[in-house]
Amino acid sequence: MKFQDNFLWGTASAAYQVEGAYQDDGKGLNVWDAYTQEDGHVAHSENGNIACDHYHHFKDDVKMMKKMGIRNYRFSISWTRVLPDGTGKVNQKGLQFYSDLVDELLANGIEPLVTLFHWDYPLALHQKGGWLNRDSSDWFAEYAKVVVDALSDRVKYWMTINEPQVFIGCGYAIGKFAPFEVHQAHDLTRMTHNVLLAHGKAVQVIRKYAKQKPTVGFAFATPCCTPESNTPEAIAEAKRKSFAFTKNRFPFELAWWADPIFFGKYPEEAYRILGNDMPEILEGDMEIISQPVDFYGVNIYESKATETEFGYAENAYIGCARTQMGWPVTPEVLYWSPLFLYERYQKPILLSENGMASHDWVQLDGKVHDPQRIDFMKRYLRELYRSMQDGAKVMGYMYWSVMDNFEWADGYDKRFGLVHVDYQTQKRTIKDSGYFYRDVINTNGEAIFS
Ligand code: GCO
């Protein structure tokens, strides 16, 4: 039992979570840089100033990936490393870092997958209104062009934005992520519309200026519900809930963000529920937003099996295995979610993130034994395999994350990596799961069945 020959086996990271070097070589500040200097936003008042110092360790980090047999690496570009003010002047040294990283990856037989935006929004643009400003999509398109010009001779795979549900939801609705603001629906819908325009314009830029045929998508979060039983009714209900638009969940929904891209319109229920809070849609907007993409990138960690219209039925997971994040271990989500997404949007799925945080440490023998993560990967990947057998078209799987890193509001406590990072010394130690993943990749999936 193997995955298809061209299956993309990889791992993922994001600039702010790993790079550090937050003021080096002309980099401008982003909202995470700026606002996490204030205490109280992040656990232990930590920030990403240094993080894994990947900016200075990238060569060793790529060697480490090679040692784990990694074939694909999804990383993001820090917008303000490339354009310190978000637009205008290009910082050649910042651009060079990504060019060198791409070269290093390719020289080690690792295919790069680039995410243009993974939440580190330029401070200078935030001060001009950020995503509320109708010009924000043009700012993003300008940035996208700079990156595409510099890297597309070597980079084929592109993701525009990562989890808009989460950076708008956590950043501007509930104030948990930078810039730690709380806005009402009227603003949030406008931000959404500008983010979607930015996505669409970036797709246009990539298609127009890429130096080789690009494969373009995004990486979305997904509130995916799984059925409580295998009856047709339970399956239909899980599907309905997965794509439902509810006032309560807004703006964390799936269809709110994906329907405009694939169907050129917001969900019907959104008009009914949001009324006058719906964004202003100018002529031509929906055409820009619904530029064809090549794949549906999705980050999936857990099922929202019991989520109701009114929130979470907490007791449904009593005693259930949970990761260090407190997320229930629900591998069946990798069976149902790709099937539901593929059926609705008819695009190949890229698992752009999946993984777990656990209480890992370097043990007395100098190794990191993380059997839970190995078990987690087996269980989730077996379900993914089953999903593909039953018709979901899946291009690849990117384990989150290549190494332990800065987990946003949770700081450094939560360890998602295949590689352990000692933040005092920057020493890396490949965990048992990193070696297990090497076997998975080398056997094209067979190792998950042993
Ligand atoms: C996200 C982000 C990652 C997180 C990961 C674990 O999707 O939330 O892409 O940056 O670190 O998902 O929470």
From TrEMBL:
Enzyme active site: E163 (proton donor), E353 (nucleophile)
Q: Which reaction does it catalyse?
A: Hydrolysis of terminal, non-reducing beta-D-glucosyl residues with release of beta-D-glucose
Write down the EC number: 3.2.1.21
What EC class does the entry list? hydrolase
Q: Which residues cross the membrane?
A: none
Q: Name one GO biological process term.
A: cellulose catabolic process
Cross-referenced InterPro entries: GH, GH_1_N_CS, Glyco_hydro_1, Glyco_hydro_1_AS, Glyco_hydro_1_beta-glucosidase
Q: Name one GO molecular function term.
A: beta-glucosidase activity
UniProt keywords, alphabetically: Carbohydrate metabolism, Cellulose degradation, Glycosidase, Hydrolase, Polysaccharide degradation
Which top-rank group of organisms is this from?
A: Bacteria
Lineage of source species: Bacteria, Bacillati, Bacillota, Clostridia, Eubacteriales
Cell membrane keyword on record = no
> Which sites bind substrate?
Q17, H118, N162, Y301, W400, E407, W408
Protein name according to UniProt: Beta-glucosidase
User: Has UniProt tagged this entry with the keyword Magnesium?
Assistant: no
Its family?
Belongs to the glycosyl hydrolase 1 family.
